[in-house]
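Researcher: Go.
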Amino acid sequence: MDGTIIVADDDRSIRTVLSQALTRAGCRVRATGNLSTLWKWVEEGEGDVIVTDVILPDGDALDLLPKILKMRPNLPIIVMSAQNTVTTAVRASEAGAFDYMPKPFDLSAFLALVNKATKQTRPTAKPPVEASRLPLVGRSALMQEVYRVLARLTHTDLGVMIFGDSGTGKEIVARTLHSFSQRKNAPFVSINLAATPPDMIERELFGSPENPSGLYVAAFGGTLFLDNVDDMPLDAQMRLLRVLQGQGADDVRVVASTKQDLQTLVADGKFREDLFFRLNVVPIRLPRLAERLEDIPDLSRHFLAQAAKEGLPRKTITPEALDHLRSHVWTGNVRELENFIKRLTVLCPEEEIGAQIIRRELASHMELGPKEPEHHQKLSASVEAHLRHYFSLHTGTLPPPGLYDKIIREVERPLIILSLQATGGNQLKAADLLGINRNTLRKKIRELDIEVLRSKKMM
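Model: Structure:
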């Protein structure tokens, strides 16, 4: 890798680390902590790639990007920011950034991106759209990847397939795609195919001789969201494919979602392969709440604020209470957490929700939760199905490295939490139940950030 890289960040330590890494990679580096020096170097023709933070002492770098690109249209600009929201990612994309990297980031991934920027022509700036706050909450690494994909889809009409379990927010993502698209002023039409009788799906979508105005026509100029597309009958799939291939198909953008492994359904003859490829141009995978536990505090505060806007009592929540929420096993994902938080705003008499209230309500929540089915599959079969689904979401590519540790952590954390709950928080008994040394259990509790509570045994 060669060329001159301009690094702009007001954090001296970050400038030093990036400068050293780029120098070792063979680049010449010029580093600054302000926008005025960055602009001076751009005017002088310095730099083959710019790497800049968003907020600098003398301004917002995203506001300067259009001016830089007007002067030097082919200069790749990589934007990095600790303000890891979808709005920041979209603003960077719309301003014409080559790419966006949320902090903190892996140094090797950063160097690979800079190397790519030195070899490719950066995209042209896109016309601005309203960067309103969207109902997507979370700063976890997995959500950051979702934001980056969404930012790259701004102002495109590519087919998108949203993969995710129930309650992960698939419709919210579909609405986000619509809100930041050129179709944002046109209709967003949604149909839940799992909740629609199979014999009514084709009529709902495409109308009937008596009433030819179906949902597809209603979505003209806008977006049609097919929620749970795996529940679409084969006849309706064939009709949809013909419509998508026909004249005027571009008048509607189709976004679909599924919680199933569609490739398995294709192999079983339950879903048309040609329709799958038509819809699955860009896949987006939404993580389960268990994969993004660090987002629970932000999500909980967001739902409390949302509840207050809806007329429910205004509440705050203590850090200790948030720790309890993070240690709970949320099988219903973000939707379950949202419903639980809104329930607390009604049932909790105090203005501040504390740890004791959370403990009490979580115990009640578990008693009222769904019961285990009588005929459930073995754990190995369930894990295998989960992994097949996970691999299917990376069609044509391999999943990120570290898969073994990722899966072990996903199984290990709920196993230890439930064992501690079953033994009333007695670590000696929990270690014996698990068949591991007590010191090993203590180490795991620290590593996985599990809070141990002494309470009545589950069994």
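Model: The radius of gyration is 25 Å.
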